[in-house]
Amino acid sequence: MQTEDFSTADFLTSPISLKLLPSTSFINDGGELFIGDVAVTDMAAEFGTPLFIYDEENLRHNISEAKAAFPAGVAYASKAFLCKAMAELVAEYGINMDVSSLGEMYIALGSGVPAENIVLHGNNKSVLEMKFAVENGIKIVIDSFDEINLLHDVTSGLKKKCRALLRVTPGVEAHTHEFVKTGHEDSKFGFPLADSVAHRAIEQLFRLGHVELLGLHSHIGSQIFELSPYVETMEIMAPIFNRYSFSELCIGGGLGVPYLGNEYAPSVSEWAKAALQAAEQAGIAKDVAITAEPGRSIVAATAITCYTVGSIKEIPQVRTYLAVDGGMSDNPRPILYGSGYEVFLPSRADAFREKAVRVVGKHCESGDILVSGGFIPVDTEVGEIIATPVTGAYGYSMASHYNRLLRPAVVFVRDGNPRLVCRRESLEDLLRFDV
Ligand SMILES: Cc1ncc(COP(=O)(O)O)c(C=O)c1O
Fold first, then answer.
1. Percentage, residues of the chain above pLDDT 90
2. DSSP designation for 211
3. Are 102 and 79 in contact (CB under 8 A)?
4. pLDDT of 251 over the 60 cut
5. Which of the residues 83, 162, 364, 422 is marked catalytic?
6. Residue to substitute in 65, 78, 79, 398 for testing ligand 1 pocket (most ligand atoms within 8 angstroms of CB)
7. Domain 121-293 classified CATH 3.40.640.10?
8. How is the chain split into domains, by residue range?
9. What's the CATH architecture for 10-55+301-431?
């Protein structure tokens, strides 16, 4: 959650911490930030702003870490950030991909992710989505009794078999924002354990000739900083899991990442270790595949977003507004969840940030805030490039056309080569849907 406005905590006013920046970041003697061996301000000049810059080496490292941490299988949760280049990385490393719509399935398949490595989620899958998944051999996570009926109709209609998991809500309250909690009973997702609802669903699925029910799934929420809710989930899931001879137990995603210099989150390796240990302690057989589907923890910290400062408005005794050329259309997390970010100048990344500002976008909403309580160097001027770190997850993927702003460009940079992976939208793009 957002740090208090105008707090003068050291971490906010000191130079930006390298731990919030992508892994190949370095700051030269002149204070200029480089990512992937390219100066960030050069990329902003070449590709324009707002601009998402992803550190490709960091992405590759995170995918490899997750793959090694969950040897039985890990799926990248593509909702966090998806484009062709990202899906191609997933395909290259041979990990699985979690998708939750026809659109995500289309991009995954079209980018070379094999159908057998794709798993379809969603609490209200359409007939088309179910048919597409069954036809292509995509694994399906079943979310409701209506979906069991739909799956029956689709598999018998197509005369095709389908692999499935059943999503269970274990009743675990993760300490995170209300809108991203999903493991508690009062949730639109999955089958509750209470009143044997999940048992009934399992029995029903066992009766469907075309469905191979591999196991259970749970996802308790997102941006979770503690490992104990996962251990608790394992303890709660073990009895129902062990009653059947299932082969897979998926713990979902949700591992948190630090957005502010004073936050700490466990690594994916630590998360996996805790989950695998908890599975063993809960009596889950060694040959069961304990799988996971992290999104944010793979991509969030690998990217920054660059903006150009357009106006600095001082309101004496109140605050200073620093307005940039993007806003809630490229990062809706602050307005959705009150999420906190830091802000810094890539051209002076070693500078102390002693001026309190509220970084706002250019949308027609007072809630269009990117950084509620940020700090920048006192001599920051209109026209300079500022950046928000840790914007690789749920930014571009949640981007909108509000006020008909053009969705930003995305660059992957590695070994001195920035490559444009999503071009900035054009004015013509805005009219493409009008008939
Ligand atoms: C079913 C499921 N799995 C995985 C994820 C990924 O979560 P995160 O990005 O927090 O790791 C989500 C996110 O909402 C989800 O709904």
1. 92
2. E
3. no
4. yes
5. 364
6. 79
7. no
8. 10-55+301-431, 121-293
9. Beta Barrel (2.40)
